Structures are given as structure tokens and as C-alpha cells.
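Example S7 (C-alpha cells).
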């Protein structure tokens, strides 16, 4: 009740916050719709898993190239101007698809340009909140932004893009995306002017920031070598992001080669997974206090491995069953698609069980003085873990099929489950002793 009242009397009467929040809803929905459309478009144009992997790769590379520079730039720029310009540039980039048509080079170029600009938009948006929201309302504001982050994915990626493409075509969807980015830029232009910048961006400032970033990463790595439970939690999160990147790259090929459906039907996999994440979050709230973070992560890893094996076995099992039923076709097996979508739903639940407890553990156990640097290492891990598989999964899927890729992913998850098992047990015992000490008043 108190949270709702804070939102009602604080945030919902704050015009600047409403402008930024509305801009976030529009821009994130547009960005997710664009990603969904480009994945389907590239798959339809090329019928190649390698091409789809390259598309995702073009979205992952910009944070690696420009991440440090973006933070330095935003800290020394007018945040409002950055928000306006980045949204306008994204609208301009998507306009290219309307001018030059639907071809592979345009799709890659637009995806890279939008991802590059978004690297600057995200820190500017996060840095704007403390300037326009009262300190006591920040928790509510961040909660709303987190909810919007997940909701925009479901709305843009799973609902808007597939429906508009199916009923009106790609040009109409791209025009809608341009309008959404433009509207977001207009909303950001209504924000109050930013505070004067004390230090302007220059070559010397950027160089110092890069040197400081390298030093901070070194300190974080030295800290992590002494904290195996936190290190493994970072690995768990990085692995889940790798699996998500893999799924995004292979989903169109999977529905084409395994489900024998058009590439744009890949929402049959993505939508159940997204719903599964939400269901997993709700389930975690009920069971996590009883089973603890470590057991939740172990259960999530085991479930993810089983789901990946089921997805890998789907094609050969369906072919055998299809031959037995109707001479080799899948038309008589409508339940087969149901099994795959259910497996995707379970995979979404496992994602929540791995990621949320791992992130919570890190936030609870990290000292504040090292927290930012460790999360910087997490971003680096996520980028590296995502980049390497994207370079190989496409060619492997094109040469040997999608099943070996899913089997390899299952082996990776099992290896991580086994590798971190001892550390999870130690962390679980340590937390149990801490709880007993707290409840009995005994010294820890």
C-alpha cells in the first residue's frame, strides 16, 4: 500500500518522470519489435542459421566496443540532449529500411547502428532518474522501469512485430517503429535542462577513463578469486545470457527445420519462454525462502539442461513418429508443436530460477566499495560468453543441424552445474549457519 501511495503522490504527478517512463515504454517496445522483425526477415531471406547468428552478433558487438566510451560521454554531456539525439538517430537508422528495401546488408547495418546508439541511450536514461525523481521515490521508479523492461520485450518482440508483419507487412512495421522512436525523442525534449557539465569530454579524459576501467577490472578480478560463490554466480548469469543469445539466433531455423513452419512463426518458441520467465518469477517468490538461492540455481540448471535435450531430440523423434503415423509427415502430429512450446515454457522458468537467485546473492554479498567494478566484470563476461558461441553456432547448425547445438548447450549447462556444485553446497551451509546465528542471537 505504501509503495502504491508513493507512486501515486510522487511519481505519477512528476511530469518529467512520466515523460522518461513513456519514452522508455515506446523506445524499448520499438527496439524489441525491430529485433524480432530483423531476425525473421534475415531467416526468410537466407534460410541460414549462420546469417541469423551474424545478425545477433551485430547487436552484441557495440556494447563491447563502445561500453566504456558511452559511460564517459554520458557523464560529460547534457543527459536530456543525449536522450533526444539517440532516439532521433534510431528513428533515422530504421528509416533506412524504408528507403533501401528489405535486403541482408540493410538488415545488418540497421541492427548494428541501432545497437550502437542504444549503448549511449541506456546509461543516459539511468543517469536521468536521480535528477528528476525524489530520493524516496527512486525504489518505485526503478521497479517501474524493471517492469517496463520485461513488459516491453513481450509487447514488442512477441506481440507487435509478429502481428503487424503477418497482417500488414514489414514496411508498415518499420514505419511504426520510426514513429515510436520519434515520439520518444519528442517526450525526452520536454525534460528540464540538465545541470552544467563540469568536465568536457576530450581525448585525455577518455584515455584516463579507459585506464581507470582497466584498473577497476583488475581489482574486481582479484576480489573474485577470493570469492568463489560470487564468481560462480556471475558465471551462471553469463551462461543464461549465452543461452538466450543462442535461442534468438536459432529460433527461426528451429521452427523452419524442426516444426516445418515459416520462419516468422518463431514466436511459438519465444512467447512461451517469455511467459515461463514470468511464471518462474512468481514461483520463486513462493519457494525461494524455503529452498534457498543455491538449491534454486541448481534446480534451474538441471531443468535447463533437460529442456535443451528435449529440444535437441524433437526433430528425430518427430520424424520417427511421423513415419509411423502418416508416412513421414508431421501433419498428423499437432501435439508435437505443443510439446516443443511446453518445453520452451519450462526453459523460461529455469532461466528465472538461475538468474534471479544468482543476481540476488551477488547484490547481498558484494561490499558496496567493489560492487560497480564487479558488475562491470559481469557485463564483460556476458559479452564474451555471448560473442564466442555466436561465431560458431550458426555454421554448426547449417552443417550438422540444430540438434548438435542444443546438445552442446546442454553439455555446457551440465558442466556448469557440476563445476559449481561444491561451492553452492558451501554457500548453502554458510547461509544456514548465518540464519541460525541470527535467530538464536549466537555470535557468527
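Recovered sequence:
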Amino acid at each position: 500500500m505504501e509503495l502504491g501511495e508513493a507512486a501515486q503522490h510522487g511519481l505519477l504527478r512528476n511530469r518529467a518522470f512520466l515523460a522518461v517512463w513513456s519514452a522508455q515504454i515506446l523506445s524499448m517496445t520499438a527496439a524489441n519489435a525491430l529485433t524480432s522483425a530483423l531476425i525473421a526477415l534475415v531467416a526468410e531471406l537466407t534460410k541460414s542459421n549462420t546469417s541469423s547468428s551474424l545478425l545477433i552478433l551485430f547487436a552484441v558487438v557495440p556494447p563491447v566496443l563502445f561500453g566504456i566510451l558511452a559511460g564517459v560521454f554520458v557523464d560529460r554531456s547534457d543527459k536530456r540532449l543525449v536522450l533526444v539525439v539517440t532516439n532521433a538517430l534510431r528513428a533515422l537508422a530504421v528509416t533506412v529500411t524504408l528507403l533501401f528495401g528489405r535486403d541482408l546488408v540493410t538488415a545488418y547495418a540497421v541492427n548494428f547502428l541501432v545497437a550502437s546508439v542504444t549503448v549511449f541511450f541506456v546509461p543516459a536514461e539511468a543517469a536521468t532518474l536521480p535528477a528528476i525523481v525524489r530520493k524516496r521515490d527512486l525504489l518505485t521508479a526503478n521497479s517501474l522501469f524493471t517492469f517496463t523492461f520485461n513488459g516491453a520485450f513481450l509487447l514488442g518482440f512477441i506481440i507487435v512485430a509478429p502481428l503487424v508483419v503477418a497482417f500488414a507487412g514489414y514496411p508498415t512495421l518499420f514505419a511504426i517503429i520510426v514513429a515510436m522512436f520519434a515520439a520518444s525523442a519528442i517526450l525526452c525534449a520536454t525534460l528540464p535542462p540538465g545541470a552544467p557539465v563540469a568536465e568536457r569530454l576530450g581525448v585525455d579524459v577518455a584515455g584516463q577513463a579507459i585506464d581507470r576501467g582497466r584498473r577497476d577490472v583488475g581489482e574486481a578480478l582479484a576480489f573474485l578469486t577470493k570469492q568463489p560463490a560470487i564468481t560462480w554466480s556471475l558465471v551462471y548469469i553469463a551462461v543464461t545470457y549465452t543461452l538466450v543469445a543462442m535461442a534468438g539466433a536459432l529460433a527461426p531455423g528451429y521452427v523452419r527445420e524442426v516444426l516445418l513452419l515459416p520462419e516468422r512463426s518463431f514466436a511459438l518458441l519465444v512467447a512461451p519462454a517469455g511467459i515461463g520467465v514470468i511464471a518462474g518469477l512468481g514461483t520463486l517468490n513462493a519457494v525461494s525462502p524455503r529452498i534457498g538461492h543455491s538449491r534454486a540455481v541448481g534446480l534451474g540448471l538441471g531443468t535447463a539442461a533437460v529442456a535443451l535435450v528435449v529440444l535437441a531430440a524433437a526433430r528425430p523423434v518427430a520424424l520417427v513418429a511421423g513415419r509411423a503415423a502418416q508416412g513421414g509427415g508431421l501433419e498428423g502430429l499437432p501435439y508435437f508443436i505443443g510439446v516443443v512450446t511446453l518445453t520452451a515454457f519450462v526453459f523460461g522458468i529455469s532461466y528465472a530460477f538461475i538468474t534471479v537467485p544468482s543476481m540476488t546473492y551477488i547484490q547481498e554479498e558484494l561490499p558496496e566499495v567493489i560492487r560497480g567494478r564487479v558488475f562491470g566484470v559481469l557485463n564483460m563476461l556476458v559479452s564474451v560468453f555471448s560473442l564466442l558461441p555466436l561465431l560458431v553456432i550458426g555454421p554448426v547448425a547449417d552443417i550438422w543441424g540444430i540438434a548438435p547445438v542444443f546438445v552442446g548447450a546442454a553439455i555446457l549447462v551440465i558442466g556448469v552445474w557440476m563445476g559449481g556444485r561444491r561451492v553452492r553446497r558451501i554457500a548453502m551451509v554458510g547461509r544456514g549457519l548465518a540464519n541460525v546465528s541470527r535467530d538464536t542471537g549466537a555470535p557468527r
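Notes on this example. Residues 1-191 form a domain with the Growth Hormone; Chain: A; fold (CATH 1.20.1250.20).
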